TrEMBL record:
UniProt protein name: tRNA uridine 5-carboxymethylaminomethyl modification enzyme MnmG
A Pfam family this chain is assigned to: GIDA
Organism of this sequence: Parasedimentitalea maritima
Subcellular location: Cytoplasm
Entry keyword Translocase: no
Keywords, alphabetical: Cytoplasm, FAD, Flavoprotein, NAD, tRNA processing
Annotated ranges, domain tRNA uridine 5-carboxymethylaminomethyl modification enzyme C-terminal subdomain: 540-611
Family: Belongs to the MnmG family.
Length: 617
């Protein structure tokens, strides 16, 4: 392996790393995926599940860009549920419980089969540099790998420390050593590091759980898959169990709070507010006498159960006590104790929109290292870094995503503009244009980008173009047919008798009107495939809102689309407060829209920047 030469080297085979490596390789550049062990590829460090609210949107977007996460999750899915099913499609989130072993096997299989991609086992301990430009990595055995662009996706491994009660030891996650040398090397670049933490619950032996009195939750009868290429599931399906903590559980936790790593003062890092430990829940919601726990199987044939809702850093004996106080878990055997991990992250405000680190040429960062939490957030960043590192090798324009075209764009903008104060996770509420950024239309928004970049498979391209053809002709038929209120009434569609003629698309937006209600009125639509019918219904439902959002987006782009040069000198703008000047100098917004979202930015401040931009450009 001495002196191997690649275009892109991805360090880390987790969720960010695999997606980054696949994206770069699909772009046609020679790519290496360097990871500590081959078996790390596709490992889920925490819960065996993919998707959920906001996160499911990200997986769909990754898939629309021909990424791998959605395809692998579909293969590994053992319980599929569409969250928020009763609410509108814009905020519904596909989620799947995944079989850990299948997920790893399938991810490895796809990775080994990907053209232009080579897996390399080893630990990166140093960077090869020439001037201020990175051009390779050094492995712990002294071997060198040369590359034009490096994408670092080391997750929770940078100076990772594992805590169980008052016992702490260095670790990247349970069973793995941390990356200390690489973190120390990065200190030389004066990278702004911070410290975060996250935790995981004890794993239980499902054979020792008394399932007889527990509620069971099966998956949906009509599973919603992640990939636009798939329409059927392959793994056996299972149900999850549901149980609850009780007052005794809370008593045990309360009495032992001082022994918890998080409450005993052993951890400085900030944890995820939206994924609190059981200690956190007992303290913060002290008025609640019970919390729900989902007992999630880690595989269709695996006895390990992931008790979702009781992550902890209490000592092992306390974990035993509180687990046994829970209904159904009285005799449960703990296979692996819960633990907390504290690790270094890089302030993402030091990154550009393409996820390259400013000030060190050729280095990109993606995943948990940028202060996020979750497989989906990591994979989506991997996609951005992979596409951009490859584009840069090929002398192509950067591939930027915007808040108006994707959740990916929302996340990148949030991270690079505002940074993080706790591990960042995606929610639908983060996207102001969420009516247009639906999980169901991710392909319509993003597959054209993948096609134009030349990194979309022929299979996806053909499937997408055929779908767009069918959608286009169906919508055309519906838009060009107009009906009087009388005609609609005679078809059983209640409508105000105001004399106005309405198009088929208008009528399809009415509550309770389905494609089937309308089809008899329009000749030639009876052959329309079910998935096209459902898609047209969803598009019709949101058409008016989207039209309004489109106008808002256009206005925003007009006013705020002014690109700010990289060397723009904010400090010399008179009238701007010192606080804003400092924030602008740190954030270095890419355009006026990004500047507008900086905490504390005022309309007057924006006007001053715009005036200077107009003067200088
Ligand atoms: P990882 O998946 O961690 O992958 C990092 C990869 O880098 C590994 O393959 C590792 O071997 C490799 N690597 C590291 N250093 C080097 C090096 N020097 N050389 C070569 N390879 C290297 N997410 C949630 O959404 N909810 C949760 O509740 C949650 N809890 C978690 C609890 C724990 C204890 C942990 C560890 C993680 C938890 N996560 C949770 C986070 C989730 O696992 C991560 O967000 C996700 O895996 C991040 O993906 P990544 O690709 O950035 O990093």
């Amino acid at each position: 392996m001495k002196h191997s030469i690649f275009d892109v080297i991805v360090v880390g085979g987790g969720h960010a790393g695999t997606e980054a490596a696949h994206a770069a390789a699909r772009m046609g550049v020679k790519t290496a995926l360097l990871t500590l062990h081959r078996r790390d590829i596709g490992v889920m460090s925490c819960n065996p599940a993919i998707g959920g609210l906001g996160k499911g949107h990200l997986v769909r977007e990754i898939d629309a860009l021909d990424g791998v996460m959605g395809r692998v999750a579909d293969k590994a899915g053992i319980q599929f549920r569409l969250l928020n099913r009763r609410k509108g499609p814009a905020v519904q989130g596909p989620r799947a419980q995944a079989d850990r072993a299948i997920y790893r096997t399938e991810m490895l299989k796809l990775t080994e089969a990907q053209e232009n991609l080579q897996i390399v086992e080893g630990e990166a301990v140093d960077f090869l540099m020439s001037d201020n430009c990175i051009n390779g990595v050094v492995l712990s055995d002294g071997a060198e790998i040369h590359g034009r662009k490096i994408i670092l996706t080391s997750g929770t491994f940078l100076r990772g420390v594992i805590h169980i009660g008052d016992i702490s030891r260095p670790g990247g996650r349970m069973g793995d050593r941390p990356s200390v040398k690489l973190a120390e090397r990065m200190d030389d670049f004066e990278v702004p590091f911070g410290r975060l933490k996250t935790g995981t619950p004890p794993r239980l032996d499902g054979r020792t759980i008394d399932w007889s009195g527990l509620d069971l939750q099966p998956g949906d009868d009509d599973p919603t898959l992640f990939s636009f290429l798939n329409n059927r599931i392959s793994a056996p399906q299972v149900s999850c169990g549901i149980t609850h903590t009780n007052e005794r559980t809370h008593d045990i936790i309360q009495k032992n709070l001082s022994r918890s790593a998080m409450y005993g003062g052993h951890i400085d890092g900030v944890g995820p507010r939206y994924c609190p430990s059981i200690e956190d829940k007992v303290v913060r919601f002290s008025d609640k006498s019970s919390h729900q726990i989902f007992l999630e199987p880690e595989g269709a044939t695996d006895h390990t159960i992931y008790p979702n809702g009781i992550s902890t850093s209490l000592p092992e004996d306390v974990q035993e006590d509180y687990v046994h106080s829970i209904f159904g878990l009285e005799n449960a055997v703990i296979l692996q104790p819960g633990y907390a991990i504290e690790y270094d992250y890089v302030d993402p405000r030091s990154l550009s929109l393409d996820l390259s680190l400013r000030g060190v040429e050729g280095l990109y960062l993606a995943g948990q290292i940028n202060g996020t939490t979750g497989y989906e957030e990591a994979a989506a960043q991997g996609m951005v870094a992979g596409l951009n590192a490859a584009a840069s090798c090929l002398d192509k324009e950067p591939v930027n995503f915007s808040r108006s075209n994707s959740y990916i764009g929302v996340m990148i903008d949030d991270l690079t503009t505002n940074g993080v104060t706790e591990p960042y996770r995606m929610f639908t509420s983060r996207a102001e244009f969420r009516l247009s950024l639906r999980a169901d239309n991710a392909d319509q928004r993003l597959t054209p980008i993948s096609i134009s970049l030349g990194c979309c498979s022929q299979e996806r391209k053909e499937k997408f173009l055929s779908k767009m053809d069918q959608l286009g002709s169906t919508k055309y038929a519906l838009e060009s047919s107009k009906y009087t209120p009388k005609q609609l009434l005679s078809a059983g569609i209640k409508v105000s008798q105001d004399g106005n003629r309405r198009t088929g698309m208008d009528v399809l937006a009415f509550p309770d009107v389905t494609f089937e209600t309308l089809a008899p009125l329009i000749t030639g639509l009876d052959q329309t495939k079910p998935e096209i019918r459902r898609q047209v219904e969803r598009d019709a439902l949101y058409a008016t809102y989207i039209e309004r959002q489109k106008r808002e987006i256009d206005a925003m782009k007009r006013d705020e689309g002014h690109v700010i040069p990289v060397d723009f000198d904010f400090s010399s703008i008179s009238g701007l407060s010192n606080e804003l000047k400092t924030k602008l100098c740190v954030t270095k917004p890419h355009d006026l829209a990004q500047a507008a979202r900086i905490d504390g930015m005022t309309p007057a401040g924006l006007a001053l920047i715009l005036a200077r931009l107009r003067r200088d450009t």
